[in-house]
Amino acid sequence: MPKKMPSPCIGVCKFRREGHCIGCSMTKTQKKMYKTLKKPAFQRAFVDFLIHQQAAMGRFTHWAPAYLRKCRKKGAVPPAALE
Question: Which InterPro entries does the annotation name (predicted)?
Answer without folding.
Answer: DUF1289 (IPR010710)
